Amino acid sequence: MQIEEYFEAFSWSKSLEKELSQNQIGKCLLPIEEITNADIALISVEEDRGAVDNLGAIEGAEKVREYLYQLHKPNHDIKIIDLGSIKAGNTQNDTYFALKESVTFLIRQNILPIILGGSQDLTYATYLAYAQLEQTANLVSIDSKFSLGNSDEGINSENYFSKILLHQPNALFNYSNLAYQTYFVDQKELNLLDELFYDIHRLGVIKNDIKLAEPVLRNADFVSFNLRAIAQQYSPAHASPSPNGLTSEQACQLSRYAGMNDKLTSFGIYDYNPTLDFRDTTAHLISQMIWYFIEGFYQRKSDFPIASKNSYTKYTVAIDEGKQEIVFYKSPKSDRWWMEVPYHFSMFKKYERHLMLPCQYSDYESALKNELPERWFQTFKKLK
Prior knowledge:
Blueprint: E1 7-8, H1 14-19, E2 29-30, E3 40-45, H2 61-68, E4 80-86, H3 92-108, E5 112-116, H4 122-132, E6 137-142, H5 160-166, E7 172-180, H6 187-195, E8 199-202, H7 203-208, H8 213-218, E9 222-226, H9 248-260, E10 266-270, H10 281-297, E11 313-319, E12 324-330, E13 337-340, H11 348-351, E14 356-359, H12 361-368, H13 374-383
Parallel strand pairs: 2-4, 3-4, 3-5, 5-10, 6-7, 6-9, 7-8, 9-10
Antiparallel strand pairs: 1-4, 11-12, 12-13, 13-14
Helix pairs in contact: 2-10, 3-4, 4-5, 9-10
């Protein structure tokens, strides 16, 4: 294995290992030698030097693993490997390099990494993996803030997204945020994301109808989940908690939606600080979020319509007295919907994966009312 030098194996509690039954996840892990047979790899990263006011976020991975591996596996044959932890390098950039190389290797092997941080600036290292793969990617951040911060400072958990925006060559096609809380963000940040035609959704909108998040997550290549998006009573283990936020059930549902996404190739959970965890509440929740992600992964339908669409039901809707047409496709496997964004032929090869935009039936209904779906319009503007 090309990346083994970066990892230190997880040390089991002998008493816990003996107590596990055959159907608990901890007993179903593949040995390291069988990595090429794995579908999912769990890795933790012991790096929090970029954490802003949340030092201690490197120490919780073993606690999460102990809860996760006691859970009974979903009703599927699972192929999961635990690669252990990436230890902090001499510098943050050393750690980023190790994570970037690891994610790149795993994606090339068609293995999906679940990354357990560490601070959320590790998302930047994951992004660098997609840049190295020369793949334009969509990032979905589940967070109460946007992490645009001061880009002139060294990279940290509060400005990592600015660093992604400034990185050249640019490998980011789209950014979406789920569950931001308006009183935590500057109006200038909202204006900037609007000018870039990015896709952001307030906490209240998501809590009112969690299903609105499904097509957003279905469009992601990688997801970065900051635990401060979850309300304090459900996830106390963060130095900047909020009384408002997602519930534990909603966090698990979003994780499941992410797992079900055929496009998604990495998933990260960040900023868990075990020194603040009351009765291991957050560790237990993270383990269940990962469980729901795994369940979603093994319920994938492989119906992303990037190639032949002959088996899909096609609907064409004329907008603005026929001046614009929107083509919708409905999957016969899952009844999920997509809408096709028109493009110039010169863009097809570079943006092919982004031209079929996940949507809902309600977007089709909006088009029938002569209304352009907002996400279609944003993507169309990006391609002009």
